[in-house]
C-alpha cells in the first residue's frame, strides 16, 4: 500500500462539528479533498448548508449541512441518525465545536462557566458517545477531538483571560487519552489536535489588540493559516494514522516548545 493509499478517504463518511467556518471548515475541506463524504453541523445551519454545497460541487462528494447544538443530546443524535441514513456510515468524527468566556477568574459567573463546559467538554462527550456507538457496531472508526494549547499550560492574563476555555480543553485531552484506552481494543482510535493561534471569530478579540506581541512568541513567526490543520486531521482520520491513538498532536508553530 502506498502513502497515497493510506491517506485516501474515498468511500468513508465524516462528521465535523462546527464545520461551517474557520478551522472546522478548513479540516472538513481537507477531508473532502481526500474523498470523504461529509456532514457539517453547527448552531448556524445556513452556513453549514452553504459550505456543504460548495464542498460537494468542488470535490464530487456527498455533503450535508444541518443544525446542531452539541450540548443538546437530541440534536447530537439527530446528526448521527442523519449521517447513517444519508451517508450510510460514520468513519470519522471531528469534534470541533467550541465556545469561550473571557473575564478574570474572580468575575466569571456560573452561567459563563457552565456554557463553556456544556459545549467544549460535554458536547465532545455526547458526540463521541453517539457516533462511537455506530463505530463500535462497525468495529472501526476514528475520533479527532479539537483541544488547544491552552489545555497544555496556563495563560498570561495580560493576553488570555479565559479560564473555562483552558480548563475544558485540558479536559478534552484527558477524555481523549482515556477513551483511547476504552475503545482501542474495539477498533476505534481517539486522538486530539491542539492548535495554537489561528485567526478566527473567537481569537480576534486577543489577536486584534495583542497579535504583534503574541507572534513574537512563536518560533515560526506567524499564526496558523488556512492549510495548516489539513494534514493533521488527514493523518489522524485516515489509515496513515492507523497506529496512533491517545495522542494529542500540537499544531502551534512551536509556541509550546
Can you tag this structure with a few keywords?
257 residues, alpha/beta, 7-stranded parallel beta sheet, 8 helices
Layout of helices and strands:
Layout: H1 3-7, E1 13-17, H2 22-33, E2 37-42, H3 45-59, E3 63-67, H4 73-87, E4 92-95, H5 110-138, E5 141-146, H6 163-184, E6 188-195, H7 204-215, H8 230-237, E7 248-251
Parallel strand pairs: 1-2, 1-4, 2-3, 4-5, 5-6, 6-7
SS-based structural class?
alpha/beta
- What about the largest sheet? 7 strands, parallel
Oligomer description: single chain
Shape: globular
What value does the average pLDDT take? Answer: 97
Count all strands and give the number: 7
Radius of gyration: 17 Å
Order of helices and strands: HEHEHEHEHEHEHHE
Q: What is the spatial order of strands in the main beta sheet?
A: 3-2-1-4-5-6-7
Task: Catalogue the unreliable spans.
Answer: none
* Distance, first to last CA: 34 Å
Measured as a percent range, the helix fraction is 40-55%
Short summary of the structure?
Helix content is 46%, strand content 15%. The protein has helices spanning 3-7, 22-33, 45-59, 73-87, 110-138, 163-184, 204-215, 230-237, and strands at residues 13-17, 37-42, 63-67, 92-95, 141-146, 188-195, 248-251.
Could you explain how this protein is built, in words?
The protein has 257 residues and is of the alpha/beta class. It is built from 8 helices and 7 strands; from the N terminus they run αβαβαβαβαβαβααβ. The chain has helices at 3-7, 22-33, 45-59, 73-87, 110-138, 163-184, 204-215, 230-237; strands at 13-17, 37-42, 63-67, 92-95, 141-146, 188-195, 248-251. Strands 3-2-1-4-5-6-7 form a 7-stranded parallel β-sheet, sandwiched between helices.
Amino acid at each position: 500500500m502506498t502513502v497515497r493509499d493510506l491517506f485516501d478517504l474515498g468511500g468513508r463518511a465524516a462528521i465535523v462539528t462546527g464545520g461551517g467556518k474557520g478551522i472546522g471548515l478548513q479540516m472538513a475541506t481537507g477531508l473532502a479533498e481526500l474523498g470523504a463524504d461529509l456532514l457539517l453541523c453547527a448552531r448556524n445551519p445556513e452556513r453549514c448548508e452553504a459550505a456543504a454545497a460548495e464542498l460537494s460541487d468542488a470535490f464530487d462528494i456527498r455533503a450535508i449541512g444541518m443544525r446542531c447544538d452539541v450540548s443538546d443530546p437530541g440534536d447530537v443524535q439527530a446528526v448521527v441518525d442523519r449521517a447513517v441514513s444519508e451517508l450510510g456510515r460514520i468513519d470519522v468524527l471531528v469534534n470541533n465545536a467550541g465556545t469561550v468566556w473571557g473575564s478574570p477568574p474572580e468575575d466569571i459567573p456560573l452561567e459563563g462557566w457552565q456554557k463553556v463546559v456544556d459545549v467544549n467538554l460535554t458536547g465532545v462527550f455526547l458526540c463521541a458517545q453517539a457516533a462511537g456507538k455506530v463505530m463500535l457496531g462497525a468495529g472501526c472508526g476514528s475520533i479527532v477531538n479539537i483541544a488547544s494549547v491552552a489545555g497544555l499550560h496556563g495563560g498570561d492574563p495580560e493576553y488570555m483571560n479565559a479560564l473555562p476555555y483552558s480548563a475544558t480543553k485540558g479536559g478534552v485531552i484527558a477524555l481523549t487519552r482515556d477513551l483511547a484506552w476504552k475503545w482501542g481494543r474495539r477498533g476505534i482510535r481517539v486522538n486530539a489536535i491542539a492548535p495554537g493561534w489561528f485567526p478566527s471569530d473567537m481569537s480576534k478579540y486577543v489577536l486584534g489588540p495583542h497579535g504583534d506581541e503574541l507572534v513574537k512568541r512563536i518560533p515560526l513567526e506567524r499564526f496558523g493559516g488556512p492549510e495548516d490543520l489539513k494534514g493533521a486531521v488527514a493523518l489522524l482520520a485516515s489509515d496513515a494514522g492507523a497506529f496512533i491513538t491517545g495522542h494529542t498532536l500540537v499544531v502551534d508553530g512551536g509556541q509550546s516548545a
